[in-house]
C-alpha cells in the first residue's frame, strides 16, 4: 500500500489507453462493459463478469452518481497489488439511474481488498476536482481524447497527512437501516441483507466502523438525523453553521452531546422547535 500511495497524480493510475473519448453505450450496464473491456484488454483485470456483477450490486445499493452528469462506479475485487481505472466520456449522455437521468462522464474504479483506504483517498482527490464547475466544463469541452486525458491528468490526489479517510454519511445511515432489518430477517433474506452490509463496510474505514458497531451494540442505533437543527437522538440543538454543513454534505459529523453520527433528515420540514438553553455543537470527523 505504501508504494501505491506515493503517487499524488491521477495520471499515475490512468494511462491514455484507458480512456474512451466517445462511449458507444446508451445505458450504464453497456458503459460498464465497454470500460471493463478496456481494462481486460490491458490485462488490468481478469474476471470481467465477476466485476460487472459487483458493479451492478453496488449500484443497486446506492447510486454512484457523484455530481450532475458524473458517475464513479466502483467495485472491490482482487486485482493484484494495483488499482484499475477506466474513464469514458459521452457527448450524448448515458441513461444511468433512469432514462431521464443521464451522465456524460464515467470514472470506473476497481481496487484490491488488501489495500484498505485506497479508494477513499482516490475518491477524495477526484471529488475536489469534479465538483468544480470550471474544471468540469473543460472536461466536457475537450476537443479530442488527448485534450480530455490531459485535463484529467491535472487532478492531484492529495493524501491526508493524518490518514483520515473520506467517509460516506449516506452509506453509514443505510448500513444502520440494514442492521435493523437483519434483526427480523432469516434465511435468504438475511443472507441478502448481509451481502449489502458487507458491500458498505468495504467502503468505510476501520475507525468509523468500530465506533458504529460499538454505538449500535450499546444503544441499539448509531446514526441520528438532524431535523430543524436538532439532533433527534438527544434532542439538543447543534450549532446553526454545523447544521447547515450537515444538510449539504456527505461527510460524517458527530454530536458532541450524545456521540451519535449525524446525518440530515429526509423528513419534510416541521415547525421549528423551541430553542434550548443547553446548546451543544457537532464535530466533523
Verbal overview:
The chain is an alpha/beta fold. The protein has 2 domains: 4-152, 3-Layer(aba) Sandwich (Mannitol-specific EII, Chain A); 169-284, no CATH class. It has helices at 28-41, 48-61, 118-130, 133-140, 145-152, 169-182, 187-201, 206-219, 240-247, and strands at residues 19-20, 65-67, 70-71, 74-76, 84-95, 102-111, 223-227, 230-231, 253-255, 261-264, 282-284. The strands form 2 sheets. Strands 1, 2, 3, 4, 5 and 6 form a 6-stranded mixed β-sheet that branches. A 5-stranded mixed β-sheet has the order 8-7-10-9-11. Strand 7 and strand 8 (230-231) form a beta hairpin. Helix 1 (28-41) runs antiparallel to helix 2, helix 4 (133-140) runs antiparallel to helix 5 (145-152) and helix 6 runs antiparallel to helix 7 (187-201). It starts with 18 loop residues before the first strand and ends with a strand. The model is unreliable at 1-7, 159-166 and 268-281 (pLDDT under 50).
